[in-house]
Amino acid sequence: MQPIEITHLVNGEPQFVMMPAVGTQPGPDVIVGNLPSVEQFGSVGTQVGLAVGTDSCNNGQVDLDWFALPNNDHPVIPQNLYRMSGGTDNIERFEQVGQSWLKHAFAAASANTCGFGCNGVGGSHLGSGCSDLYSASLNASQSGLGSRAWVNPFTGAFPGSPSPADHTGHVHTGTSHRVTVAMSDLDRTQNPGATYFAEGQYVTPHEYAWCQANPGQCNMYNNVSYRQFSVSGSTNFTFSPVGSTVRSQPAIFAWTGATINKIEPDPGNDGI
């Protein structure tokens, strides 16, 4: 995306001002622009394995690092599922009913889902204004998932070797590493009136490093979005979106039965 040159007259003389590209922030700024789908990819016993599709957008003026493993300078993508239920209005409780391991980003497209105006950069970087769709099936691929325990959730840092996505020594089932949820938590007959929310997030070391070097350009606190989905089925489940993706807010903001006060830490402070 290119800057915009504005010409205006001052005392009869032309003056030129270079403005940043429309819809962008200084530095890299990845957000979850859309959560297009939730899908089931297997089951074991009383549990199912789900995955959430995530479409990321770079709202920043700087191309975001997207280097594949074994390089550790790329986003990791957690997927979560929540249920709101209980009480006369079904808003008394907000529970996390499932979570996945982390999808390790490996290559970026150069689409324009968010309408920011893509600069055409892709591959090892998510270009300024560009978007990149990871479908639910891609985020369900177990070979591309790594344990959350490897990654600092605030800085995005993790060791590149041995590979956090090394699955040597264990066998995968239909639920392994995916968003694992008990069937009883999804069955509508057992959860009348409940509502469900999928959440996706991009945790990236590039934004943290940029924030440290440029404290006034911290874009690392807006990387999570959520979307409501309706659920049908008893052992094989189907999910349909309800409304649009709510960008740059965690799913807990959907909890209408609670008062939520958001506190954003100062640059580099994880609050611990």
- Distance from N terminus to C terminus (CA atoms, Å) equals 38 Å
The amount of beta strand, in percent, is 25-35%
Question: How many separate structural domains?
Answer: 1
Largest sheet: 5 strands, antiparallel
Count of individual helical segments: 3
Integer average pLDDT:
90
Judged by helices, strands and strand pairing, the structural class is: mainly beta
Shape: globular
Physical arrangement of strands within the biggest beta sheet: 10-9-16-17-18
Segments where pLDDT lies below 50 for 5+ residues? 1-10, 16-20
Radius of gyration: 20 Å
Give the % helix.
Answer: under 10%
Order of helices and strands: EEEEEEEEEEEEEHEEHEHEE
Let me know the number of strands: 18
